[in-house]
Amino acid sequence: MEKIILLKKINKNTFDELNEINNFLITKNIDNFVLFTSYFHYLRASKIIKSNFPKLNVYYYQEENYESLTITGKLKDYSIMTYEAISLLYNRISGKF
């Protein structure tokens, strides 16, 4: 039986969110799921899952990357990319992958 389950609890970081998802899936005896994430966030989420939750069978759906055409849009994209790079470094240093 296939279902769509929306988890509404918001955690403070990606690791905690994925840990919450993992615990939920275990309690419901679900062995695979689709993770909807952004193009920029995919790398960090996939590395955390692979390193910390290797038994999860995850299918990823990424929103498509697009090129911003305005200066404001480009600055926002650079801001997101910088945040993701710093987050990757932080997670690596803290041993999450």
Notes on the structure:
- The structure is a single chain.
- With about 100 residues, the protein is of the alpha+beta class.
- Helix content is about 50%, strand content about 10%.
- It has three helices and two strands, in the order H-E-H-E-H.
- It has a two-stranded parallel sheet.
- The longest helix is centred in the last third of the chain and has 23 residues.
List the helices and strands and how they pair.
Elements: H1 14-27, E1 32-37, H2 42-52, E2 57-62, H3 71-93
Parallel strand pairs: 1-2
- Average pLDDT number: 87
What is the H/E string? HEHEH
- How many individual β-strands? 2
Portion of residues within helices:
40-55%
Q: Biggest β-sheet: count, sense, barrel?
A: 2 strands, parallel
Distance between the termini: 33 Å
Number of helices: 3
* Alpha carbon gyration radius: 15 Å
Write down the overall geometry. Answer: globular
| Strand neighbour order, sheet with most strands | 1-2
Strand content: 5-15%
Secondary-structure content class: alpha+beta
Low-pLDDT stretches are none
